[in-house]
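Ligand-bound model needed. adenosine-5'-diphosphate.
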Amino acid sequence: MKQLSAPLLPGATLGVLGGGQLGRMFVHAAQAMGYFTAVLDEDPSSPAGLVSHQHIQTGYQDPEGLARLADVSDAITTEFENVPAVSLAALAGQCFVAPTARAVAVAQDRAQEKAHFVGCGVPCAPYAVIETAEQLAAVDVGLLPGILKTARLGYDGKGQQRVQTAAQLAAAWHHLEQVPCVLEKMLPLALECSVIVARGADGTVVHLPVQRNLHRDGILAVTEVYEGNVPAALAAQAVAAAQSVAQGLDYVGVLCVEFFVLDDGSLVVNEIAPRPHNSGHYSQNACDVSQFELQVRTLAGLPLVQPRQHSAAVMLNLLGDLWFAHSDTAQTPAWDAVLALPGTHLHLYGKTVAKHGRKMGHLNITAPTPDAARATALQAAALLG
Ligand code: ADP
Ligand code: MG
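Prediction:
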């Protein structure tokens, strides 16, 4: 595996696998600091491809495309955890790659991910791996009611089924075509939160403040970040747990760790994302260093300095549904009215077609106090909805 012998200074080219919105915001952050960028994504109108200096339009497994990316880049990262780990491993022979194929492989597979949490001593939901009919038959009924999740490729609540009984579990596994799955016990959630950590090759770890998240239909809807969003003792516990999860992977890059807080006040880790995360978007406007700048810094081997949040923040996800709020045909939402509210920052991903459930952008709302941020968020939501 190639390592950096010295920091890559502005003027170098940073490559990214994946052309989605996370790649686009990475590209924006890299370019703002004077780097050149290269994106690999087969979609000619991918959000990141549209704004990158170079756009290699091939699939993630195309050897020629990967070789070209390695050729033009001084370091490569990923914006998407389902990039095949073998592609990252192949690139790492030619170029510095962060995070590593191994770390991404763990994040790609819920069974490996959970085994890693257990290995780090960080509590997660009671679970069982179901890969065979024998494992299905042997499942401890104490895990029911539970959620059956495909081990791989699930996102935004997709690839999951809630099951109450052993019969429902068997039917659900059949419905998921008997792919490897993890059955998790259904836990009583008081709230959900997440932490973004950034870890450098020298082991330095910094983090963003703990994010409190609200999901709708399995998709992140709102993130609130300010003093008191989560009890201070829990926030400290979440940061410490996120740091050990990163350390245990010898992780280099930006990592998001998602948690559940249960009704009894205990903290349980849910899953990790080996990249910036939707719940960290508020950092673009509410912190002096954003999660995307952290990604640039970890990739380029630049110093990591603990970020400081300077404003209370609420982030509202902007799904394609908003384009259909007032009509069956897509209509541009009233951005001008929203932007008349103080402290509103609009981020759109350049996707030309709005669809229900599609992430089109987000609105960051910053304010001097939590109450003011929440009040503006309510006004913005009313204008859009
Ligand atoms: P995804 O990869 O789709 O984000 P998650 O595992 O994070 O999948 O699950 C999506 C959402 O479903 C969570 O944010 C949480 O609201 C709910 N959920 C998942 N697992 C559990 C569980 N064990 N108990 C209760 N709720 C859960
Ligand atoms: Mg999740």
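The radius of gyration is 21 Å.
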